[in-house]
Design a protein that fits this description.
The chain is of the alpha/beta class and 283 residues long. The chain has helices at residues 29-33, 87-99, 116-131, 142-149, 164-171, 222-228, 260-282; strands at 2-10, 13-18, 21-27, 43-46, 52-56, 62-63, 68-69, 73-79, 103-109, 136-138, 153-158, 197-201, 204-208. Strands 10-9-8-11-13-12 form a six-stranded mixed sheet, sandwiched between helices. It has a five-stranded mixed beta barrel with strand order 1-2-3-5-4. The structure holds guanosine-5'-triphosphate, magnesium ion and zinc ion.
Length: 283
């Protein structure tokens, strides 16, 4: 028996890293029968004779999108232009990552494309996230990044075309990952990276992942959404079980200290939640 970690999955092919040697493995039917899907990042046992994965070790955590297990930190790559800054997608990812109890880090990219005026607007947003306690860097701060992720297993996720693979190439040019310009007509990335892939770099691991342009919070609870807006806890609401949407005198609604896009996104996600649960009860 060998013990290793899944580095990449391409349909039925599982690449397992055992002490830096890569094995091309398959998966026993028993996992499919029990509806357990091995994920990139899983520690597994493989049978040396037929290279079948025979066991998945318990996970410390996992994310659904991107689908990966056993990670210490999730980097949300956020482009400020081309594609345009999408704060709704950022806040959604923060809610999701918080719900799965993974440490987030926001990495802004493409600051070089901003005019001076746009840059000062961007700085206000950047400072806001930093001040509420979410670590923030820019994709040019390579040395700071290497220090933060030292010793960790880190997944880079976010919008297609935001520059995830380009960033990993800057960290380790030898990887030479495929990158592509965004579509000018759609102002959107073109889904260049197709699979989750975990790379060992110096004393850390980085996972490149396929980007997306939308995300749903279907499986999350109301509590998950509320808790995902971590700064709300600074302004305790005196109403019991308040959803901060319609109650007069609520400390969150109309709070000028909360960035307006944050409150708007919160309200949007709660409305999505209520709509989804209505659909669920109708079934
Ligand atoms: N100007 C500028 N362009 C950048 C920057 N980072 C990435 N790009 C460009 O953005 C485009 C998309 O980059 P990718 O690295 O392919 O994006 P991705 O996030 O991996 O995209 P998917 O694999 O589709 O999810 C490429 O043309 C990069 O050269 C940046 O900081 N500034
Ligand atoms: Mg990519
Ligand atoms: Zn309230």
């Amino acid at each position: 028996m060998l013990k290793g970690r899944i580095k990449n999955i391409n349909s039925t092919k599982y690449i397992v890293d055992v002490d830096d040697i890569l094995y091309d493995c398959t998966v026993r039917g028993i996992f499919r029968k029990n509806k357990i899907t091995p994920l990139v990042g899983d520690y597994v046992e493989i049978n040396e004779d037929d290279l079948q994965i025979t066991k998945i070790f318990p996970r410390i955590n996992f994310l659904k999108r991107p689908n990966i297990a056993n990670i210490d930190m999730a980097i949300i790559m956020v482009s400020v232009k081309k594609p345009d800054l999408d704060l709704t997608l950022l806040d959604k990812m923060l809610v999701m990552i918080n719900a799965y109890k993974v440490q987030p880090l926001i990495c802004f990219s493409k600051i070089d494309l901003l005019s001076d005026e746009e840059k000062s607007k961007y700085k206000i947003i950047q400072n806001y996230y930093h001040n509420i306690g979410i670590p923030v860097i820019e994709n040019t701060e390579l040395e700071a990044f290497k220090k933060i992720v030292s010793g960790k297993v880190v997944v880079i996720c976010g919008q297609t075309g935001a520059g995830k693979s380009s960033f990993i190439n800057m960290i380790d040019p030898l990887l030479n990952l495929e990158t592509k310009p965004i579509s000018e007509s759609l102002n959107r990335g073109v889904h260049t990276t197709r699979y989750v892939n975990l790379y060992k770099i110096k004393d850390f691991y980085l996972a490149d992942t396929p980007g997306f342009s939308a995300l749903d919070l279907n499986e999350l609870s109301k509590e998950d959404i509320r808790n995902g807006f971590i700064e709300f806890s600074l302004y305790p609401c005196e109403y019991n079980d308040c959803d901060h949407l319609n109650t007069d005198g609520c400390s969150i609604k109309d709070n000028s200290k909360i960035l307006s896009s944050r409150y708007e996104n919160y309200a949007k996600f709660m409305k999505e939640y209520y709509e989804n649960s209505r659909k669920f009860f109708k079934k």
